[in-house]
Structures are given as structure tokens and as C-alpha cells.
Design a protein that fits this description.
mainly beta; elongated; ten-stranded antiparallel beta sheet; 2 helices
Length: about 180
């Protein structure tokens, strides 16, 4: 009797696999779901806050797609302190692009912040700050980096380089929508 069930089970398994192979059926394959538009993830971003010598305008901004290791570098609006930075680049809202990342324990600095903006249809002016003391709250995933008298390099479009020492706080609050 068991020998009569074996062909029936083989036929059932074969029909099951044929049914799974239909092309119009969504599968667990991620690329199939994306092609059919069924894998719509909500936008993810970070609430980024700068206070101190670097200040966001508005102070807290939602930034989408910010700063994996190699970019992208999303738009951001920032104001540089007129007490620290040269007058030609400070005291006004600068519409530019932001990049920031943690660089681990093996370097003499823990965190990097880069911000650049075009000036009068010329090349971009760039500032880079390396340093800071990061603290990440394990429960809320909020990262706070405190920069105290860290060097900020300013790269002008004409090739000049200047340095200033900055104090500011950066807060990254991951938002999952």
C-alpha cells in the first residue's frame, strides 16, 4: 500500500514546485518584489541638530539618506559663528551639503563632519572638522558628539586654507517612519 502512495506524493511535490514557478506570483526574492513595486519601505532619515559654532538653520533638520561611509551627501542649511569664522563665510544661512561619520577607535579623532556650499557660482567652499567625543544611547540609538576646541579646516575655492578652533554639539536621532 505504501508503494502506491509514493507516485502520488511525487506528483504532488512536482505540482507544488510548478505552481511556485509562475512568474506573476510575488516571491520572497527581494528583486521580484521591487520590480512589482510591492517593497515600498518608508523613508528613513536622521533628525540632525547642530548647536554652538556650527548651527543648523533650523537648528534641527530631518535629513534623508545621510552619511553612510561614502555618501550620499544630502542638502543641509547651516550658519557658521561670526565670533570664530571669517566674516566672508559667517553670520548667514549657507545652503550646502553635509557629510558626517564615525571613524572608529584606531584614529586620533573619532568623528568627522564636512560641510560645503557653492559661493557666487564658483567652486565650493568646504569646512572639515575631525575630533569630538561620541556618545550613543543604546536604547534610543541617539548619537551625541561633543566637539571642544577641535580644529576646523576651511578650504576656499581659490586654493587658500585656513583653520579655526570650534566648539559645537552634534545630535543624530534616527527616525524610522
Amino acid at each position: 500500500m505504501i508503494y502506491k502512495l509514493i507516485p502520488f506524493l511525487m506528483l504532488a511535490v512536482a505540482l507544488f514546485f510548478i505552481g511556485c514557478k509562475q512568474e506573476n506570483q510575488p516571491t520572497q526574492n527581494k528583486s521580484d518584489l521591487e520590480l512589482q513595486g510591492l517593497n515600498k519601505k518608508p523613508l528613513e532619515g536622521d533628525l540632525i541638530t547642530f548647536t554652538g559654532d556650527l548651527e543648523g538653520i533650523p537648528q534641527t533638520q530631518l535629513v534623508i539618506g545621510c552619511c553612510p561611509n561614502a555618501g550620499p551627501s544630502p542638502p543641509y542649511t547651516m550658519m557658521l559663528s561670526s565670533e570664530i569664522f571669517p566674516t566672508e563665510i559667517s553670520g548667514r544661512a549657507l545652503d550646502g551639503y553635509i557629510f558626517m561619520n564615525n571613524f572608529g577607535r584606531n584614529l586620533p579623532w573619532a568623528y568627522k563632519v564636512s560641510f560645503w556650499w557653492p559661493e557666487n557660482n564658483a567652486q565650493d567652499t568646504l569646512i572639515i572638522v575631525r575630533g569630538g567625543i561620541p556618545y550613543k544611547d543604546k536604547r534610543t540609538k541617539i548619537l551625541t558628539v561633543t566637539f571642544t576646541q577641535d580644529t576646523c579646516w576651511i578650504y576656499y575655492p581659490n586654493g587658500d586654507v585656513d583653520t579655526v578652533y570650534v566648539d559645537f554639539k552634534l545630535i543624530r536621532d534616527p527616525q524610522r517612519g
